[in-house]
Amino acid sequence: xxxxxxxxxxxxxxxxxxxxxxxxxxxxxxxxxxxxxxxxxxxxxxxxxxxxxxxxxxxxxxxxxxxxxxxxxxxxxxxxxxxxxxxxxxxxxxxxxxxxxxxxxxxxxxxxxxxxxxxxxxxxxxxxxxxxxxxxxxxxxxxxxxxxxxxxxxxxxxxxxxxxxxxxxxxxxxxxxxxxxxxxxxxxxxxxxxxxxxxxxxxxxxxxxxxxxxxxxxxxxxxxxxxxxxxxxxxxxxxxxxxxxxxxxxxxxxxxxxxxxxxxxxxxxxxxxxxxxxxxxxxxxxxxxxxxxxxxxxxxxxxxxxxxxxxxxxxxxxxxxxxxxxxxxxxxxxxxxxxxxxxxxxxxxxxxxxxxxxxxxxxxxxxxxxxxxxxxxxxxxxxxxxxxxxxxxxxxxxxxxxxxxxxxxxxxxxxxxxxxxxxxxxxxxxxxxxxxxxxxxxxxxxxxxxxxxxxxxxxxxxxxxxxxxxxxxxxxxxxxxxxxxxxxxxxxxxxxxxxxxxxxxxxxxxxxxxxxxxxxxxxxxxxxxxxxxxxxxxxxxxxxxxxxx
Amino acid sequence: xxxxxxxxxxxxxxxxxxxxxxxxxxxxxxxxxxxxxxxxxxxxxxxxxxxxxxxxxxxxxxxxxxxxxxxxxxxxxxxxxxxxxxxxxxxxxxxxxxxxxxxxxxxxxxxxxxxxxxxxxxxxxxxxxxxxxxxxxx
Lengths: 549, 138
What we know:
The structure holds two protein chains of two kinds.
Chain A (H helix, E strand, L loop, with lengths): L8 H15 L4 E2 L2 H5 L19 E3 L4 H14 L3 E4 L18 E4 L6 E5 L4 E4 L5 H10 L4 E2 L10 H6 L8 H4 L5 E7 L5 E3 L33 E8 L1 E2 L3 E9 L4 H14 L8 E3 L8 H6 L11 H9 L6 H10 L4 E9 L1 H15 L6 E3 L4 E2 L38 E5 L1 E4 L2 H18 L16 E3 L2 E5 L3 H20 L3 E2 L4 H10 L2 H17 L22
Chain B lengths: L2 E6 L5 E5 L35 H9 L1 H4 L6 H10 L15 H10 L14 H11 L5
Antiparallel strand pairs in B: 1-2
Helix pairs in contact in B: 1-5, 4-5
C-alpha cells in the first residue's frame, strides 16, 4: 500500500481505520486494484514515475461524513483530494494533483435536492452528473434545461468549480457564473454556506447570488480552500423556439467587421446563443457541423488546387486562395448565430442581425430552420445535442477510432488560451501558433478559429494527444510548457488546465511579483494550516510543500 | 414499440407504459416493486420491459451512451470502424464476448474509454452487465 509522504505507516493505518468507522468498510479503498481505478486515465505521465496517484480512496455519502474525513485528515496530517464524478478527463480525472493523497470520492453524494420550475433553479450534490439532472428533469416533465458541457457524465458542481462551459444561452454557458449559492466543508471541518444560505430561514438561497459582504464563492473554484458539498444553479426555462442563421463574408479582411458586429449583437443581447465560427475556404468546420458530422462518412478530399492553396496560405492569408474563393463562391468566413425565445421575437432578432451584418460588402445570409420546442423524437436524434441541453459523450470520438481517425489515441489534453475578441488577435494568434507549430513540429491546423463559449473573449482550443508512448508524451509535455510561456508573452493565458501544467500556468499570471499567487497562499495558510486539502491544485501549495522562491 | 406515456408510480419512480395497444394488447405498467426508471438521458428514451434482465438496465445506464444504437455513440462508431462489419459494432449484439474481457475493459479501459470506479459501477452492477453481454442466445 502506498503511504502519503510525511505520514507514518501507523498514523495512516489509524486514519484509514477512522475513515472506515465513519463511512463503513465498503467505502474505503486501499487495495492496489481499487486504488488504480483512481488513476487519471488521460494522464500525460502514463507509465512514468511522475504520474500523480492516490494512496487510498474514501467515498462518503453525507456532509457529516465529509466533515469526519476532514477532521481525521487534520489529526494525522493526511492529504486529501476531493473529486465529484472524477470525469474531467483531460483536466486530471479522478487522480490527485499531489501523489499520495487520499481521494475523497463524492460520487455517492448524488442527490438532486431541489428543483424549482417556478424559480428555474436546482440544488444538487457533487455526485450529480449532467445525465442525472437531465433524467430528473425529463422524468418529472419539467420545462427546464440544464446547460451541458460536451461530456455529460461530468458533475454539475465539479464542472462549475473547474469553470467549464456549455452551449445554450449566454447566461448559462459559463457554468460557474450560472451557480447560485454554495455549501462548503472548510479544511477544518466547519460547514459554511454562501450567499443567502448564510441567513438561517432564508428562502432565497437559489434566488439571490451574493448575499451580504464579500462574495467569496469564487475562492472555491479552481482552488483547494474547501470541499463544496451543495451548489445551486439557475436553469434555463425551455424556450418556445430555437433558430439559427448563418452570415457568410467573402474576403479575408472581412473578419474585422464580422467580429465587430458579432460583438455588438451578442453584447446587446440580440443573439443569445453561442456563436459558431467557420471558414469554407480554409476548410474549418463550425463546432456544430463538426459534432453533427461524426456519424457521417469522411468528407471527400477537397479539390487538389484548393488543398494546395490552403497549404500555401500564411496565417490564413493568400491572395490566390482568396481569388479561388471568389471564383467558386466559397465564403472566407462564416458565423452562425443562435437564438432562443418566442418564434416571432427570434425571427425579428435574426432580421436585425442581418441588417447589421449587411455592413460587410458582399455578405450573404443563410436562413436556418425554426425549431419549435420541445423537440420531436426525430429531432432528438439529429440536432446538435448540447445546444438543446441534451447530455451525450459524442465528443469522445475526438481521439477515439472513427472513420476519419483509424489510429486512436489514449486520451487528450487541451491547450486553451483566452485571447481578445478581435480579428487582429485571431490573426496574430495564428501567426504566433503557426510559427510555434513549425518550431515545435506540432501537427497544428494551418489556421484555427477560436470558440465563442464566453462572452467578451475568444478562446483557442488546441488538442494534444495522450499516447501510450512515453517519449511522445514527454515531447508533448515539453511543447505544452513552451506554448504556455509563448502565449503569455503575448498576453494570452489559459482559462483552465490539467494538474501537470497548473504550476506553469499560475506562474505566468505574475503581475506585481506574483501577487495573485501570494494572495492564494495567504488564504491557504489561513484556512488550511495543516495543508491537508488538495495540495498543488491549480498551483496552490501549502506552506510545507512550497518551493523556495 | 415506442414510449407513449409516463405514469407516476406508488414508489415515486416513473413507470413506463409500452405501446402494445397497436398489437391488440392492453398496456400494462411495470410493477412498482421491480420497476426500473425509464432511461431517458440519452437522446432517444430507452424503454425497460419487465422481462428484461438487470444487466440490460445497467448496460443502458452505464454503457449505452457510448455503446448503444443511434446518434452520438463514440464506442459504437469506433467498433464499426475497427471490425468493418466482421463483428457487430453494438456490444449488445456480440456473441463472442467473454466475461473476463468485459471485466478487464471496464476496470482497465481501452483507448479513450477510461476505467470505471466502484462508486460509479459496483462489482455487482458490473457482474450484471457481464451476465447480460455474455448471455446465451437461442
